[in-house]
Design brief:
- By secondary structure, the chain is of the alpha+beta class.
- It has three domains: 218 residues, no CATH class; 53 residues, SH3 type barrels (Roll); 107 residues, 2-Layer Sandwich (Alpha-Beta Plaits).
- It is built from 15 helices and eight strands.
- A hairpin with a 3-residue loop joins strand 7 and strand 8.
- Helix 2 runs antiparallel to helix 3, helix 5 packs antiparallel against helix 6 and helix 7 runs antiparallel to helix 9.
Length: 463
């Protein structure tokens, strides 16, 4: 019945029919409406009291920060406002039922109530995501400590922002799906909601697997004990590559599972990925060259992470060997990123042993036997002080002549990569040794001038 016809008939009935039955019916409807309103008010009051009790219990149970405490207050205030509005909307729906309003209007009122309930509760829950994640963090930390899983949980804590984002997206999708399912024309679209939520869950599960896998790879390949230094450095070189391969594999599997959960056949995707790989293989020969060169660098053990190498103008410590590039940090702190295909020729200073070379300039009238003895004394002192020195100092003899001096070259075998540090320490000890040998004699060079020569020069005086 149309609304205007209903109003006209009700008016005519009231004006013409004055029987006690009609008035009793209206009085009964009004009484029921009043009772329904009182019931709603009492229910709202009770639920508000329960919400306040729950808020106080939650504050006592969880140690909340100031920001979380303010968020909790806002969330419960939003719940109370939504509850009050919903109560009055239910009163309106009850009035439409009691006064026999046309069914179409009642259906629209019920539809609005359902949509309001879904949207308001969904928004309140979405706003409380941060608080929910914080509470889950506290609970997860306690549970991990009881199970001795703290090492894993501390590593997974970095995913808490990702978890919050995924929960937000899933809740928004769920709210939109519940709203669309209320409307008959959009019910087919609403069927995508659970599929999208499942895809979001698969994505987050993939991120968890990646983080746990990276942690376990490092733990298994680099145990704290039981590895020699060379083996440890070799494994430290392989760990980033294994982690990268594992990450790519999990991402690929996650993408396939997401497509499958959305109802798409992943086989064409796999075929397209194979075709794309073939095209990349033909078009990116330099990329293939870098990857293959990196494989042979590791396979032939050319250098490892931590080795001191020299490649062209770059000389320093190898920090990372990746699929395409090698990163070398020089003594000045600069990082050199070199393609693996361009790593030739390579000079490795960290294999088996190194040689610390120190050259000393002495005048022609110096006592070479005394100089050699002083050099050997400094080398023996260095050998006793440093564990990096493997052999005694070797004197290679006179290697060069200048106008006023001759050069004596020394070499000392030291641990790999310790050449420069050992050479600097040896220079200091050589200087201290010849300073002690000179006594009070004047030292304008490494070797002190003979005393008689100094006196003769002083007696001659200026010319």
């Amino acid at each position: 019945m149309p609304l205007d016809a209903f109003v006209a008939s009700l008016t005519a009935q009231v004006s013409t029919d004055s029987t006690a039955h009609t008035w009793s019916t209206l009085a009964s409807a009004l009484a029921k409406l009043v009772l329904a309103t009182l019931a709603v008010l009492i229910t709202v009051h009770v639920v508000r009291w329960l919400l306040r009790v729950a808020e106080r219990m939650l504050r006592r149970w969880a140690q909340l920060s100031d920001e979380d405490d303010r968020s909790l207050t806002q969330i419960f205030a939003s719940f109370e406002r939504a509850l009050t509005n919903l109560g009055w909307m239910l009163v309106v729906v009850a009035a439409s039922l009691l006064f026999a309003v046309p069914g179409s209007i009642t259906q629209w009122l019920l539809l609005l109530v359902r949509i309001y309930l879904v949207v308001v509760l969904g928004i309140v829950v979405i706003r409380s995501t941060a608080l929910i994640v914080s509470a889950l963090d506290v609970f997860g930390d306690r549970y991990a400590k009881r199970r001795n899983w703290s090492r894993y949980y501390e590593h997974l804590r970095a995913l808490l922002p990702t978890l919050r984002t995924c929960v937000d997206y899933a809740l928004w999708v769920g709210v939109a799906s519940l709203v669309l399912v209320q409307l008959t024309p959009t019910q087919r679209v609403a069927a995508w909601g659970p599929l999208l939520i499942q895809a979001i869950a698969i994505f987050f599960a993939g991120r968890v697997i990646i983080e746990l896998g990276r942690l376990e790879i490092g733990h298994r390949m680099l145990p704290h004990e039981g590895l020699e230094e060379t083996d440890r450095r070799r494994r430290a070189t392989m760990v980033p590559l294994v982690r990268s391969a594992f990450t790519y594999a999990v991402y690929f599997g996650t993408a396939v599972l997401i497509l499958s959960s959305l109802g798409f056949n992943p086989m064409p995707f796999l075929a397209g990925a194979g075709l794309l790989g073939l095209v990349v293989g033909f078009g990116a020969q330099s990329l293939i060259n870098d990857v293959v060169s990196g494989f042979f660098i590791l396979f032939e053990n050319v250098y490892l992470v931590g080795d001191i190498v020299e490649v062209g103008p770059a000389k320093g410590v190898v920090e990372a060997i990746e699929f395409r590039t090698t990163k070398i940090r020089d003594p000045e702190g600069r990082i050199h990123v070199i393609r693996n295909g361009d790593m030739k020729p390579v000079i490795n200073y960290s294999r088996d042993y190194g040689v610390a070379v120190v050259a000393v300039d002495v005048p022609y009238d110096a006592d070479l036997r005394g100089v050699f003895a002083g050099l050997r004394q400094a080398g023996a002192h260095l050998h006793s002080q440093s564990q990096d020195v493997l052999n005694e100092l070797q004197i290679d003899g006179v290697t060069a002549f200048t106008a006023s001096t001759m050069t004596i070259r020394t070499s000392t075998r030291v641990s790999p990569g310790r050449q420069e540090a050992a050479a600097a320490a040896l220079r200091l000890l050589i200087n201290e040794t010849f300073e002690q040998r000179a006594g009070r004699a004047i030292r304008k060079t490494l070797i002190a001038e003979p005393a008689e020569r100094h006196v003769t020069a002083a007696q001659r005086g200026p010319r």
